[in-house]
Design a protein that fits this description.
Rossmann fold, seven-stranded mixed beta sheet, 36% helix
């Protein structure tokens, strides 16, 4: 007598709206949206989550997540998150920000939120370019990388060096969890979800500030087909922005190995 096996259906997370996303073909914002939504579902957080949407390609994140969302001025998402969390510490508060938003106009907000150890979570998308406004050089644009404002490649002597956000924040005493991941292939996607889970848990355990930087693609502004863009993240971006954990609070280190990136 055979026993019927339970059928597992791969479906949209409950906290992700059933709508078509506006992102360009090959953009990996959608993958990260899904990972965040899966974790909101798994931790049963949708009714007490508040997401902060920034300015940039992710400006319409409030159309995709089915939790409460707030629109912040350019770069000010960590400040808005700080206010929400301090007034309602029972809520789960996260920001979803790109590199132009977080590491340029919003850098002061980011650093000071981290230094204060605000018990919030930042999902930081690093695609090394200003994607929404025309493909200009961003704080994270790589040396030699061609953009609309660096047609001969970024010259560090003229434009300065790229900012490594995780390394910068890791010297502060406020953060509980800082990690860099990518979503360039299935293995990296699994690693990214494990890192995001630990960032969520850092906040839920009241340990302080957490940030996960995700190396992401921008095929349109890079002028690459999606497959080549994914390879560029893995081979070029990850060489300059090494993947791994930079800060991990002691309670998180004791978690089961399957929860670790």
């Amino acid at each position: 007598m055979s026993v019927a096996k339970e059928q597992v259906v791969f479906d949209r997370p409950r906290s992700l709206a059933p709508v078509r996303m506006h992102y360009c073909p090959g953009c990996t914002h959608g993958i990260v949206h899904r990972l965040v939504a899966e974790l909101i579902d798994e931790h049963d957080l949708v009714e007490r989550s508040v997401g902060i949407a920034p300015v940039g390609c992710a400006v319409f994140a409030y159309d995709y997540f089915l939790c409460d969302m707030i629109e912040a001025s350019h770069g000010r998402a960590p400040a808005v998150a700080t206010g929400v969390k301090r007034v309602r510490p029972d809520l789960f508060v996260f920001t979803y920000q790109g590199d132009g938003d977080l590491a340029s106009i919003g850098m002061a907000e980011t650093i000071h939120a981290a230094a204060r150890g605000e018990n919030t979570t930042i999902v930081f998308i690093n695609n090394a370019v200003y994607g929404m406004t025309g493909g200009q050089m961003a704080p994270t644009t790589l040396p030699g990388q061609v953009t609309s404002t660096t047609p001969f490649g970024r010259d560090p002597k003229a434009a300065g060096n790229p900012i490594r956000v995780c390394e910068l924040l890791s010297v502060l005493e406020g953060p509980a969890y800082i990690a860099r991941v990518s979503v360039s292939n299935p293995r990296r996607v699994r690693e990214a979800k494990r890192a995001l889970r630990r960032a969520f848990q850092a906040q839920m355990q009241g340990l302080g500030f957490s940030l996960v930087e995700v190396l992401s693609t921008c095929p349109t502004r890079w002028g690459m087909p999606p497959e080549k863009a994914l390879a560029w993240v893995e081979d070029t971006m990850a060489a300059y922005y090494p993947i791994g954990e930079f800060v991990c609070a002691e309670p998180l280190k004791g978690e089961p190995e399957e929860n670790r990136p």
